[in-house]
Protein: Histone deacetylase
Organism: Wallemia hederae
Amino acid sequence: MATGLKKLKSKVAYYYDPDVGNYSYGFGHPMKPHRMRMVHNLVVNYELDKKMQILKPPRASPEEMTRFHTDEYIDFLKHVTPETAADLTRNHEICGFSTPRLAPNSPYKVLSGEDCPSFEGLFEFCSISAGGSIAAANRLTSGESDIAVNWAGGLHHAKKREASGFCYVNDIVLSIIELLRYHQRVLYIDIDIHHGDGVEEAFYTTDRVLTCSFHKYPDYFPGTGSTDDTGMYKGKSYSINFPLRDGIDDESYQSVFKPTIQRIMDYYRPGAVVLQCGADSLAGDKLGVFNLSMKGHAECVEFVKGFNLPMIVLGGGGYAVRNVSRTWTYETGLLVDKELEEDLPFNDYLDYYGPRYKLDVPETNMENHNTREYLQDIQQKVFDHLNNLPFAPSAQMRQVPNDPWEYSDHSDEDLDDKISKAANQYYEEPEMEEDDYQSAYKNRSVRLNGRNRTQNLQRQKRRFFQSAQTSGADQQHTHHSGCGHSHAPKPQLDDLLKLVVGPSAKRKPISHTPQSRLYDNSPEYL
Ligand SMILES: [Zn+2]
């Protein structure tokens, strides 16, 4: 039915803070924030800025970060300096408080040595990265853009109370939390060479977010991401892992990426997609061992874009900076439907691109250890898990009050609960029938339906927060936090998850021990 397909032009927002390139993880560290400056410079010199809105994101506040992370951890990031890092971690103190979590011999680490050093401006760097991804989510839910890009985001290893793998604040989880206020289901796709463990773990027990990661496994950081890790409780079957071997090339990658994503789209029916475009899966990466060309990597972006769903596009790993900037620039061009010249335009960092001065990142002749049999075997396992998925889960209507804002009349109710319940109103929007979905997908018109819906929901959101502010003033209360300051109540991920696991359920701490994560089977969880 190709004749019925109409290519829709997307409104693209691109978030960039000119300060981001000024931060440094330290001499010799593979992660170089400077690469974002190189991308932006190339983007502007290819004149892609004329095809999208370039926006400087507001920096994420500590309060926004603690929607996922613990107060203690964020306070620690805010106060730690290269000079105090050793003392603060050695003495197992955060912000003046001894915490049992950091008792001697605890498996927990806050900052892990060389990978996640404390560096000058660490907190500001995190607030830029997270601020861009949160702003990207808000941009989509307001209906102002169809696609929002934040190359400074995608830091997928950060955990609730721990930095990991060059990642301190998980901007992805924070952006998905924003999307969950409006969308019943969010799909997260991760094409970084490393397993997207921080995001998977955050949503491991919910069916509201399906995470799908393609990565090298086993014997590779962070040590997780087997096909057998499929989620728990209500989230069972909603974590999809596609382990790959060294040297995977474009053809092999697409032979599994496209069918897997198509199957997820068919059955899961997400309202929005977050795509983490880690560029360490490219050929020639300094840490990576895959063999994707720039065009092979970008084919993933193009394929996901083809579903015309509201989409956040994020960065991630990528340690051959000249190839990272080539690829993310090319992918930005693809998002705004602009073909880029093969010869690089003049730009501030031209020296990096010699001797060829070309845009492309070609495959190399490295051996592909992913045999057809291996890929088919893994594909079958993944499909078997996907077959467990019900069609468009959690779409059943629940009994909800006619007036979404009636909660504000109950002054004895915790504001967190109010926000959770009010957010629930957004999820209860009428779902399309399966047949409607089928035709919507065929016509690629889901995007337009989504836009009308999100505009409507945005109006509801404004009403809610006005209402919440008023009632919040009546029942101001504070709670004691790890640093002894008083904070206004705020919506928490736990509250969002209450919607899934029941109001009395609390998330239990999860062991962060690499290789074998242990989940607490407390019945309280169920
Ligand atoms: Zn990576």
